[in-house]
Amino acid sequence: MQWTTEQRYTRIEDITEQELTALKQKVDRSPWRQTYHIQPEMGLLNDPNGFSFFNGEYHLFYQWFPLGPVHGIKYWYHTKSKDLVHWENAGIAIRPNDDIDSHGAYSGSGIEHNGQLYLMYTGNTRDENWIRHPKQNIAVMDQHGSIQKRKTPVIDHVPDGYTDHFRDPKVWKENDTFYAIIGAQRTDLTGCVVLYHSPDMETWTFAGEVQTALPEFGYMWECPDYFDINGQGIFIFSPQGIAPDGDHYHNIYQSGYVLGNLNVHTQQLQHGDFHELDRGFDFYAPQTMEAPDGRRILVGWMGLPEMAYPTDDHGWAHCLTIPRELTVENGRLIQRPVRELQNLRGIKMEASALLEDETKTFDSFSGTSFELICTFDLEDADSCGIEIRVNDCEKTIVTYDAAGQKVHVDRSHSGALADTAYGSVRSCRAEGSQITFHLFVDSSSLELFVNDGLDVFTSRIFPSDDCTGIRFFAKGGRAACRAEKWTIGG
Ligand code: FRU
């Protein structure tokens, strides 16, 4: 269905109760509703926003167009949790209903200040000629969860030298000063980020553009994030306009990081190479927060813009990833599922076998929503791996090609297809005679952590209901396999 501009800008406040109920009922009939991922009740979810710990709870907001699976007028929707894995819907947080955000409450972040949670976001506004005028706004949430918007922007214009693609403030505090990094596009149509500072979250001063070694790396950098882990600075951003290169950059847009410390006084960022955060099909616009115990936690949007997804026909699109803990080890960013995910574990199964050029199933290893940890020790096999969500004709395949030194995730037979214009296999390098795959599978997704968080593949899959099989294989020789599996949910 083609959505007109008028339909995209229809607000949830302007539809009737009956229309709302009909939209929700359509979504409820979708076979691909997730069981433990944050997903919208209806409509389209995109970026995680305002991820923070405040008043004894984690708060995670997301970009939301309520009325259908398209990028219409965006709201902030609020979810909260005591343990990062059981999330409670808390309703709409920011409505795009003021002069400062009339065409969408776009992405932003949260920080505690004066006993309240300050949410800094981009108000997308458009004039009568449909020209965009982004504004950076503040909304403040009190201890009771009530959110009030400031009625005037804290940054009301784009500095000279940048286009109206200027958005997604990420705030942090260093000593007594607040900093905000904002995604931008230069007037020569290259991407970058700029830095602002503030003594009080109200008055903001433009410090300058962050100087990187990537002066021409795509045409827009969305959703920047900057933080340090034990003194090692990490800069995350989502560049648009990067061409595929070998096994890299095959999605429509990328998300990645560089390691390097930002000097907030000179805006210099000395950094290493750009690395993709995720090697799967569906990952974009991640955001991090610091947990009370000092862990750095990341959540991403399990989706990408401008792509068709099978749930579009059911009136909803996308979900968020499970939270991951970030660490820096041997000069690399490592991502592991947060330990709280163990709170979701149900019945445990264990099995092991020596696979000799064969494909095997293990008793009671099946399901549509589970966690699986599997280690292969290769003797002389060329490759080994796991097939999940299997029926007679569908399967999603995770392969370690030891001979070719690669891991592949193949969703070409996963069931209904997400947009195939960007291919149906994703790969990354791996080596050695042992490999560990840690999988989180839900009704319509796979998150695969390879070798204890060295690489992650995040992908939506849309299998038929009866795809409950799990199989283990070795090809061209022998591989010993040990597997542990836990049910998640019912
Ligand atoms: C990234 C993004 C952001 C913007 C938001 C709008 O997916 O384009 O740059 O703030 O989505 O929903």
TrEMBL record:
Annotated Gene Ontology MF terms? beta-fructofuranosidase activity
Which pathway does UniProt place it in? Glycan biosynthesis; sucrose metabolism
- Domain Glycosyl hydrolase family 32 N-terminal stretches: 37-337
Q: Name one GO biological process term.
A: sucrose metabolic process
Q: Supply one GO CC term from the record.
A: cytoplasm
Q: Which reaction does it catalyse?
A: Hydrolysis of terminal non-reducing beta-D-fructofuranoside residues in beta-D-fructofuranosides
- The primary site where this protein sits is cytoplasm
Key word Cytoplasm present in the record? yes
For the Glycosyl hydrolase family 32 C-terminal domain, which residue ranges apply?
340-480
Keywords (A to Z) from UniProt: Carbohydrate metabolism, Cytoplasm, Glycosidase, Hydrolase
What family name appears in the similarity comment? Belongs to the glycosyl hydrolase 32 family.
Q: What PANTHER family does this protein map onto?
A: BETA-FRUCTOSIDASE
Write down what this protein is called: Sucrose-6-phosphate hydrolase
Q: Which organism is it from?
A: Domibacillus enclensis
